[in-house]
What we know:
CATH class of the largest domain: Alpha Beta
Distance between the termini: 90 Å
Strand order of the largest sheet: 1-5-6-10-9-8-7
Strand content: 15-25%
CATH topology of the largest domain: BirA Bifunctional Protein, domain 2
Helix content: 25-40%
CATH architecture of the largest domain: 2-Layer Sandwich
Largest sheet: 7 strands, mixed
Radius of gyration: 38 Å
Shape: elongated
Bound molecules: 3,4-dihydroxyphenylalanine
Number of strands: 10
Amino acid sequence: xxxxxxxxxxxxxxxxxxxxxxxxxxxxxxxxxxxxxxxxxxxxxxxxxxxxxxxxxxxxxxxxxxxxxxxxxxxxxxxxxxxxxxxxxxxxxxxxxxxxxxxxxxxxxxxxxxxxxxxxxxxxxxxxxxxxxxxxxxxxxxxxxxxxxxxxxxxxxxxxxxxxxxxxxxxxxxxxxxxxxxxxxxxxxxxxxxxxxxxxxxxxxxxxxxxxxxxxxxxxxxxxxxxxxxxxxxxxxxxxxxxxxxxxxxxxxxxxxxxxxxxxxxxxxxxxxxxxxxxxxxxxxxxxxxxxxxxxxxxxxxxxxxxxxxxxxxxxxxxxxxxxxxxxxxxxxxxxxxxxxxxxxxxxx
Length: 349
Ligand code: DAH
């Protein structure tokens, strides 16, 4: 009569399996690993060997299942032992191996690109006075880039924007102003937004021109908005960007989508107007940095906003160009050559 039943046998196999897991979780040296191997696999007293011997006490029907359990436990033991052995053999760094004469491993932190950094500075100023940030497509239609902004087809003012056309109706936006239209089509006043983004023009790269550069557009539309709001807000913005002492002047100008329009100059940071041969301002003492104006009533009509009820002002500023000025960078191409020695030099206050 078999003296062992299948259930007790199974619980024995399970207990050994648990023992295996526990034992292999501890750290081992070659001696303890050998002991572990003997514990399970020793030909005379190994737990696996003993289990095989006990098989004879089971009934013939029980033997196949029990045999399988032992075999799978044996396989697990072999795998665990092999893994522990590999771990033991893996090369380990010891103190002796560190060569103190080698140069250290220098790790660089990533840093924001100077144009991005400057854009963030601009965004933070406007966010702090209640503006929000909008975005629009870089591939535009002629309608948004020109027509809705009050440039009729073939109007000579279009020539001021050297446009890269994709086909008869699509182009790479030449300014961020088309997003004004897109926003006014969707939202009703009050509107208080800035729109930073890439713009494209047919330019040969030189120290002050690139075929791709960044602009930030601003737009305010509400009841009772006047030129005083334009002037006050832009002065506040430029003082926060360049410091309280900066001199600012507004000059009459023309843009098809604003009336009246003004360009804004700030005093030359390089020479303060004292150097007739100044590389930055050409001796004028002033540097033009943005265009602005009161939104033309025709533009409001194009987006179904009543110009009798609402008024607004807008501006557009080159981000890279202004950053060049602020950081005293002589060549716009430096921004996109990706020379890390250049890029890492810039941080803001
Ligand atoms: N879009 C103009 C440009 O690229 C700049 C500009 C001028 C934007 C006057 C405006 C504005 O919003 O009111 O030269």
